[in-house]
Design a protein that fits this description.
The complex is a heterodimer.
Chain A lengths: L32 E7 L6 E5 L3 H7 L8 H11 L4 H7 L8 H5 L12 H19 L15 E5 L7 H6 L3 E5 L3 H11 L3 H6 E4 L3 H7 L4 E7 L8 H10 L1 E12 L3 H14 L16 H8 L5
Parallel strand pairs in A: 3-4, 3-6, 4-5, 6-7
Antiparallel strand pairs in A: 1-2, 1-7
Chain B lengths: L6 H6 L10 E4 L18 E4 L1 H9 L2 H7 L3 E3 L1 E6 L5 E5 L7 E5 H14 L4 E4 L4 E5 L13 E5 L4 E4 L2 E3 L6 H6 L3 E17 L7 E7 L2 E7 L4 E9 H9 L2 H13 L6 H17 L13 E4 L5 E10 L3 E2 L2 E3 L5 E2 L7 H21 L7 H28 L5 H16 L1 H5 L4 H9 L3 H30 L2
Parallel strand pairs in B: 1-7, 4-13, 11-19
Antiparallel strand pairs in B: 2-6, 3-6, 4-5, 8-9, 9-10, 12-15, 12-16, 12-17, 13-14, 14-15, 17-20, 18-19
The chains are: A alpha/beta, B alpha+beta.
């Protein structure tokens, strides 16, 4: 079934826009968000397409970070000189995606501020991740449904998605190459003793987790990240490497459509100023088909 | 209504939370242990709607109430002292419209249930908060984002969410600086437990609107009923201090006396009744009389002042107000405690969804959802109750005419009535008035005035000619 490549799309909980077997309706309707969930070693995988209602779309754009290429290199070369060559050639951190987010690092937790769309997106992201993980857990405690799960949040930013996952009982490691973001995230979680124990933040990139530790996770979350990375294939490969057998990868991103160009770049950045200019580059938006095409042929 | 003190707070903390959170209830009073239910009924009772009963049974408190005592009522008659207009509520299938339960019984049931969840909820008796520190809007480096509370004994607590359920003089609301729209009514309510002359089925609630205020008789048992009489401060003081016999006479005549009827209103009422019967065949509900009262339970006569209150905001970051802390209403519609219970269901719903989504419980996101939900409902009900109180506090003819016709019209339109205890039907029933209907009736009044002036002037002319 893997090789045959007949993928069936199932409308997820967020209203099935596509019926089974319908592959090419990408441009129909405002499908601005797509998320792919697949489980290793399972014979089928589900691409859940969420119809983007305008309001939700507006809440969903926000990009969370840019990675410092130079900073990363410095870090890497200081700690792991033998891997420098490997890391620079395999690095998925995009150097051009840095400056704006450094300046905004302290504004993460203002729910009405510049990151408000990301906060409201949690109402979609968290149930999505939670419900899919609950399918895998046989008996869950009502108070902590995700307890016992180890999750890696790649590009966690200020911890907006990491904290809710921690509150639901999972042990989460949040990574982000921008040091400032990690500092903000650490400070915010330090007030809650329960979260302090369940969540760990590290200022590093995905490559370092892959190379330097042998940790594997029940779930890897790359939310609003893939449109910012340099090398999508390698990034996804690394994500899969850190997954346990039977683990799940959650990717959320903005779909690459004409509508997302119109709304996401033209309107939100240039006209309405909802998102700072230059946050997104439309060419780097990822469509569900592209994700599929990357993930499918890999041995994962 | 002021009955809501304490009930809302206890009920809020018993709803089984999805998360194993730590909940602390601060109670200013001592722990009340009720070993045996007293024989004499308490004079403070509440009318519990079926919705509130569902909430109470969802966490097991209703069973305790059933094991103690309560009285279900199936019909409600509401009528005017100044006219024949009346409205009779009942449910088609004769289901219970509501339950009259003593406040003490409710408190005891809730306390018992609190003990059952003592692993998740801790109660600190005889504790009082003296100071609060509110969180800053942004997460600053060194300031805690939580609410800090200082208790009377000097200890401090911190919490992610503070729920203020401390009655209409709420300390939490005042400390948070939330504006409260309030005024005192020129009325006090007198409550008492009454013995009826003879045992009856007693499953009807009676309310009559006198010009001085509504008087209500709520069934407690086959031979006992509870009185709630809202009247002017002076009259209330008189009632509480007069002899038992005079008091009983006053009650009976309040219900039976037709001294406030005027011919004009009576004929206007009959006219409309006739018009309605032409349009549709309605069974004319004959006005029934409530059971007569024989005596009063000793020492059960108490009075308390009435007022209206409504908080401009129900929520702030990490703070929520419920029950009388958020709203205070006149008891004429019997909605005070039910509004409080409604607040609780809504807050519980929003909090449990938020918790299941991993949200911080004190986040404004879902708290504003609760606020919008409840403010929409409560504001309308408060405004309606206030309007009814004012409408019925007069015996000025135009207003009496308005409300008479309104009541009769609503009584005739059965769908509105039969829906039973919903706040909308109560609103329409008591005064027959929403703003729209008011406009309609103003038109009718104009017509009536025109007609009557025509009649009088022509009669005068006839008389005047020589």
């Amino acid at each position: 079934m893997w090789g045959g490549g007949k993928l069936s799309y199932f409308g997820g909980r967020f209203l099935g826009v596509l019926g089974p077997g319908c592959r090419s309706s990408q441009t129909k309707g405002p499908r601005l968000i797509s998320s792919a969930v697949y489980s290793k070693n399972q014979l089928s995988w589900t691409l859940e397409i969420k119809p983007g209602v305008f309001n939700e779309y507006r809440n969903m754009w926000f990009k969370s970070y840019r990675m410092t290429f130079s900073c990363l290199n410095r870090m890497k070369s200081y700690r792991y000189p033998w891997t420098r060559l490997y890391s620079t050639s395999q690095n998925t951190v995009d150097s051009s995606e840095v400056k704006t987010f450094l300046a905004l690092a302290h504004k993460w937790w203002d729910e009405q501020g510049i990151y408000a769309p990301l906060h409201s997106m949690n109402d979609l992201r968290v149930p999505f991740i939670r419900d899919n993980l609950l399918k895998v857990i046989p008996n869950h405690q009502p108070g902590k449904p995700l307890s016992g799960m180890k999750i890696l949040d790649v590009g966690c930013g200020g911890g907006l998605l990491t904290e809710p996952l921690g509150r639901l009982g999972a042990s989460v490691i949040g990574i982000d190459p921008v040091n400032e973001n990690i500092k903000t995230a650490q400070c915010h979680k330090s007030f809650d003793p329960v979260l302090d124990q369940r969540i760990e933040y590290r200022a590093c990139s995905l490559e370092e987790i892959v190379e330097d530790t042998a940790e594997t996770f029940d779930a890897v979350v790359a939310s609003e990240v893939v449109e910012h990375v340099l090398d999508l294939e390698t990034f996804l490969q690394h994500c899969c490497q850190v997954l346990k057998p039977g683990g799940s990868l959650f990717v959320t991103t903005i779909n690459k459509t004409q509508l997302s160009y119109a709304l996401g770049i033209v309107f939100s950045e240039q006209i309405a100023g909802i998102v700072p200019k230059g946050t997104h580059t439309w060419e780097k938006f990822v469509s569900p088909e592209k994700l599929e095409s990357i993930l499918e042929p890999s041995k994962y | 209504s002021s009955f809501g003190l304490g009930l809302a707070s206890r009920a809020a903390f018993k709803h089984p939370p999805k998360e194993a959170r730590k909940i602390l209830l601060l109670e200013a009073g001592p722990k009340k242990v009720l070993e045996k239910l007293s024989e004499t009924y308490s004079n403070r009772v509440s009318s519990i709607s079926p919705g509130s009963a569902t909430l109470l049974s969802s966490f097991g408190a209703w069973d305790h109430i059933c094991n103690m005592r309560y009285r279900a009522f199936r019909r409600m008659q509401v009528w005017d002292a100044c006219s024949e207009a009346l409205i009779m509520f009942d449910k088609d299938n004769l289901d219970d419209m509501g339950y009259i339960v003593e406040n003490d019984v409710i408190m005891h049931a809730l306390t018992k249930q609190l003990e059952a969840v003592s692993d998740r909820v801790t109660v600190l008796y005889r504790s009082r908060a003296v100071g609060y520190t509110w969180p800053c809007p942004f997460t600053m480096k060194d300031s805690s984002p939580w609410v800090h509370i200082t208790l009377g004994d000097g200890s401090t607590l911190q919490t992610k969410l503070l729920i203020g359920a401390d009655g209409h003089n709420s300390g939490v609301r005042q400390a948070a600086g939330i504006q409260n729209v309030s005024w005192n009514y020129d009325q006090s309510a007198v409550v008492a437990t009454l013995h009826l002359s003879e045992a009856t089925e007693n499953n009807v609630a009676w309310q009559r609107f006198l010009p001085s205020g509504p008087i209500a008789l709520l069934p407690l048992s086959d031979t006992l009923s509870s009185l709630v009489w809202s009247t002017s401060h002076e009259h209330a003081a008189e009632l509480v201090s007069m002899d038992e016999e005079k008091f009983v006479d006053a009650i009976n005549s309040a219900f039976w006396n037709d001294a406030n009827h005027t011919d004009f209103i009576d004929s206007a009422g009959t006219m409309l009744q006739y018009a309605i019967s032409l349009l549709k065949p309605t069974k004319v509900s004959a006005r029934q009389l409530p059971p007569s009262v024989a005596s009063v339970e000793a020492k059960s006569r108490v009075l308390f002042p009435l007022g209206l209150g409504h908080a401009a905001e129900y929520v702030r970051p990490r703070v929520a107000l419920i029950g009388d802390a958020a709203h205070r209403v006149h008891p004429l519609a019997g909605q005070g405690v039910n509004m409080g219970f409604g607040d609780i269901s809504s807050l519980v719903h929003h909090l449990s969804t938020a918790a299941f989504n991993g949200r911080d419980l004190g986040s404004m996101n879902h708290l504003t959802g609760y606020e919008t939900d409840r403010q929409r409902h409560n504001t309308a009900l408060l405004a309606a109750t206030d309007l009814l109180k004012r409408l019925y506090s007069t015996n000025a003819t135009p207003l009496v005419l308005l409300r008479t016709w309104g009541l009769q019209a609503t009584n005739a339109v059965s769908p509105l009535k039969v829906r039973g205890h919903s706040w909308l039907s109560k609103l329409l029933a008591h005064g027959g008035m929403t703003l729209q209907t008011a406009l309609n009736f103003f038109g009718l009044i104009f017509l009536a005035m025109k007609l009557s002036s025509f009649y009088f002037s022509s009669a005068y002319e006839q008389k005047g000619t020589c």
